[in-house]
Amino acid sequence: MGEHLGRWQDGIALQQRLAALPAGQADAMVVQTLRRFIASLALAAGAQDLRAGLGDSERIRITALAAASLAGHDAARALVLLQQALAEARDAGLPDDDPHARALAVAGNNLACTLEEKAARTPAERELMILAAQTARHYWAMAGTWLETGRAEYRLAMTWLQAGDPAQARQHAAQCLALVQENDGPALERFFAWEAIGVAARAAGDSGAHRQALAQARQAFAEVGVDERRDCQSSLDGLAATP
Which of 95, 136, 161, 200 has the smallest set of CB atoms within 10 Å of its CB? Predict the structure, then answer.
C-alpha cells in the first residue's frame, strides 16, 4: 500500500482492521508490529507523527521504514527521514543486536535498489541512493553475517555504477569478492561478486579485467544450482553483452 502504491491512508486502514481482529490483539509482538507499521505509513504520508513517547529503537525503526516507503514517491523527504533515523541511531548508543540495526540495513538496501532501477535520477535521488547503500553496508556489518555484508558491498558497487563512478564501484566489487573468498562462499555468491567486478571493469574501460571476470562468472554459473540459475541468467547475459 505504501512503498509500491503510495496509498498511505488505505494502508493505515488495513492495518487498523488487522489490529481489531482477535489475533491482532492477543499477541503483544503483533500489537507492537501493527502499531509500528501504522506509525510508519502515517509518517510517510505526512499526516501525523506518532513517534512521540516511543523508545529510541522503535522511533528509529519507524523512521527508517517510512524513508524506504517514500523512495519511489518523494526522494527529498525520504532523504530527510533517513538522515534523521541515522542521527538518532548515532545518538541512542543502542547495542549492535538491537532490531534498529537490521531495520536500517533493510531500509538502506531497499532504498538503494529502488533508486538504482530508475532510468534517470535527480541530484537528491543520487545522494539518497548512495547514502542508502552506505547505510545498508554499515548496518549489515552490525546486524548480519559476512553473507549480508558481502551482498551490501555488491549493492554499493551497483549503486556507484548508477551514480557514474566506476572507480568506487570497482573497490566495492573487489571487497565483495574478498568477503566471499575469505568465507569460502557458495557458487551463487561467487557468481554475483564476479559479475559486479565485470560490469564495473567494463564501465571503467578495462576490457582485460572484464574478460577475466566474465570467465570467472561463467565458471561459477556452471556450479550454481538449477533453481538459482534462473536468477543468474539475465545477469550473465548482461555481463557478456557487447556495450
Answer: 95
- Taking only the tens place, the pLDDT of each residue in 82-95 is 999 999 999 999 99
Torsion of CA 233, 235, 236, 237, to 10 degrees: 80
Decide: 146 and 183 in contact? Cβ < 8 Å: yes
- What are the cell numbers at 228? 538459482
pLDDT of residue 99: 94
Residue 35 lies in a domain: yes
For helices 99-116 and 75-92, what crossing angle results, to 10°? Answer: 160
* Contacts of residue 215, Cβ cutoff 8 Å, sequence gap at least 6: none
| Cα Rg, the chain, nearest whole Å | 20
Q: Is residue 81 part of a domain?
A: yes
pTM attached to this predicted model: 0.90
Residue 123 lies in a domain: yes
Domain-located, residue 153: no
Same domain, 81 and 175: no
How many structural domains comprise the chain? 2
Collect all residues with Cβ–Cβ distance below 8 Å to 88 and sequence separation of at least 6.
Answer: 56, 59, 60, 63
